[in-house]
Amino acid sequence: MSTPTRPRHHYTYVDRGADIYRDSFATIRREADLSAVPPSAERLAVRMIHGSGQVDLAADLVVDPRLVPAARAALEAGAPILCDATMVVRGVTRSRLPADNEVLCLLEDPRVPGLAQEWGTTRTAAAVSLWEPWLEGAVVAIGNAPTALFHLLEMLVDGAPRPAAVVGCPVGFIGAAESKQGLVDLAADHGIDVPFVTVRGRRGGSAMTSSALNAIAQEEE
């Protein structure tokens, strides 16, 4: 197989990966108002903005000040990361994980279709029910399905084991804003106090969520 030849430059652009990262983070810090973000979560906010391309995201972030320390300590102790979508799993930079942590998505479990049909819900929500053996002290990352976040909250209200932290950033027009508000209100409404990060409104997604995980996993920006 022949080695490809690089095309001639016809455009002026930054093409070295390290330079792109450095300039991106510098631009975010210059343009975004991070004054309302807890100091421990500033790098988290920068990476989430980087994952979305939207500097105004900072105004909609809701970050528990304990989130980054709690989640990082859990990962350093070997806790797994439980993801609602394969896209979130794929976005995790494994080299940043401090303990070669498991990153799990159970959507392909053969029990999922039957549970979803029986319960009249999405497969993503049904898959969340299978997290229970790993849930105690885990880092949860929901970046796709509002039904997954609602299902997790209902499990916690019903007495399921508590994770160490929740990155709850599902995206969409139906239920996304409401599920994230449920996460914000979980402690006040049900006395279940779990450190979390979320973004108000419809915005969210797998890229934003995996960006948050990558920031949590390692202090280095």
From TrEMBL:
Taxonomic lineage from the root: Bacteria, Bacillati, Actinomycetota, Actinomycetes, Propionibacteriales
InterPro entries: Cbl_synth_CobH/CbiC, CobH/CbiC_sf
Enzyme Commission (EC) number: 5.4.99.61
Residues annotated as domain Cobalamin biosynthesis precorrin-8X methylmutase CobH/CbiC: 19-218
Protein name: Precorrin-8X methylmutase
Keywords: Cobalamin biosynthesis, Isomerase
The keyword Cell inner membrane belongs to this UniProt entry's keyword annotation: no
Entry-linked NCBIfam families: PRK08285.1
Organism: Nocardioides deserti
Family, as annotated: Belongs to the CobH/CbiC family.
Gene3D superfamilies xrefs: Cobalamin biosynthesis CobH/CbiC, precorrin-8X methylmutase
